[in-house]
Amino acid sequence: MNKRARWLRLAVPAVATLALLTAACGSSSKSSSSTTTTKVAVTGNLNVFAAASLTGAFNDAKTKLTVANPGLNLSYNFAGSNALVAQIQQGAPVDVFASADQKNMQTLVTAGLVETPVAFAKNKLQIAVAAGNPKGITSLADLAKPGVTVVIEGQGVPAGDYTRQVLTKKGITVTPKSLETDVKSALAKVTSGEADATVVYVTDVSAGGPKVQGVKIADADQPDISYPIAVVKATKNHAAAQAFVDSAVSGDVQQSLEAAGFSASK
Fold this sequence. Notes:
The protein is α/β, with parallel strands linked by helices. 33% of the residues lie in helices and 25% in strands.
């Protein structure tokens, strides 16, 4: 069984469609003096691999994207950025990759598998606890207290690496009950009662519903969390892939990101 077939057995993406983009005629033609704008529709199949923390925002954009471009089938695959990188390296069919950190994206840049990435969003860390905060957690230091059960994302998962970076800087030693594959899995351990706390992104807490609440981490302790996105060189639909990247930077997808609590990358 070839690499593509093996991967297809593992991931069955959901179907959506991409936004109708507006482009200046002069920006892509010889008549650069024209200021007229035209609607550019993209069609065909497009497969986007995106960090799990982008699930809510990317899915929120589906309605606008579907209405605008019924001729394009957009498939999402959400997971930890490191897991997605491994799938791309193994030959998974993908057109666009959106990572929650620069490190995982750089792995693909170094391997020559993606075009030049562009930053499109920023985020912050937050402690997530059960509604009502039954353990009275008010700071990162409380995560090291006896009787507090903590889960953290595994090595290579951006949120986990960011968390360990902050804890090390502050001299806090936390022994997690488990190492999770992504932020959604970590948050689920808290909402199910299997853990008292975890550290995820502010946007994950916001999307977590009434079973979870956030405990702020001071801005002075926040790492630089920047999300890059890039067209995968093996894409079979470059026009649509580039269109999605553009929409993530300044379009319908970016609007959904901002509505979900992400900040634009400057």
